[in-house]
């Protein structure tokens, strides 16, 4: 997902730069405007598509998480502390990691299977991603791959085991 959004950000910068009203914008302004657009698009995806599946439509509605169909939200309260508790961030970490698949499929430009890469073989080994086209193959593969159902287990392919803590301090602690 990160790769997709970084590429999308760069495409937005290109489009913003082409607009006559933005000709005086410097690189920082273009970057920040594209960043704001990406943030709003990501929020749209999370609140319209991800949360209703994760929590259920009823819970989203009950908690007031359903985005407005028109207009702007008027209920912002600066006195509300928006920080996260350690317990919440740990639970979110566990939920997210329980959805990770153990294999990364690679698909060619016609979306035909090439092979699969075991997730554990990718950590701390970035050089394998320098091969021409491999990132596109992985993005295509993961875009076609269903996520795992949220549950209490995490794939053994993630370096979250205590013996991995020397390489990734702190992991394996949850």
TrEMBL record:
GO terms for biological process: response to oxidative stress. Heme b binds at residue 97. The keyword Repeat does not apply. GO terms for molecular function: heme binding; metal ion binding; peroxidase activity. SUPFAM superfamilies: Heme-dependent peroxidases. InterPro entries: Haem_peroxidase_animal (IPR019791), Haem_peroxidase_sf (IPR010255), Haem_peroxidase_sf_animal (IPR037120). The keyword Glycoprotein applies. It is found in: Secreted. Gene3D superfamilies: Haem peroxidase domain superfamily, animal type. One of its GO terms (cellular component) is extracellular region. Keywords: Glycoprotein, Heme, Iron, Metal-binding, Oxidoreductase, Peroxidase, Secreted. This is Peroxidasin-like protein. It comes from Hypsibius exemplaris (Freshwater tardigrade).
């Amino acid at each position: 997902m990160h790769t997709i959004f970084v590429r999308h950000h760069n495409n937005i910068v290109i489009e913003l730069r082409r607009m006559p009203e933005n000709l005086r914008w410097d690189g920082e302004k273009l970057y920040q405007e594209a960043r704001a657009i990406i943030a709003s698009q990501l929020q749209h995806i999370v609140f319209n598509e991800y949360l209703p599946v994760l929590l259920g439509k009823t819970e989203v509605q009950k908690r007031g998480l359903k985005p407005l169909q028109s207009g702007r939200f008027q209920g912002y309260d600066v006195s509300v502390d928006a920080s996260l508790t350690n317990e919440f961030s740990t639970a979110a970490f566990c939920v997210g990691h329980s959805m990770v698949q153990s294999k990364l499929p690679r698909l060619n430009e016609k979306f035909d299977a090439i092979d699969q890469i075991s997730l554990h073989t990718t950590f701390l080994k970035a050089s394998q991603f320098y091969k021409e086209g491999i990132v596109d193959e992985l993005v295509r593969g993961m875009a076609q791959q269903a996520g795992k159902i949220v549950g209490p287990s995490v794939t053994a392919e993630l370096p979250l085991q205590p013996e991995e803590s020397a390489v990734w301090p702190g992991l394996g602690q949850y």
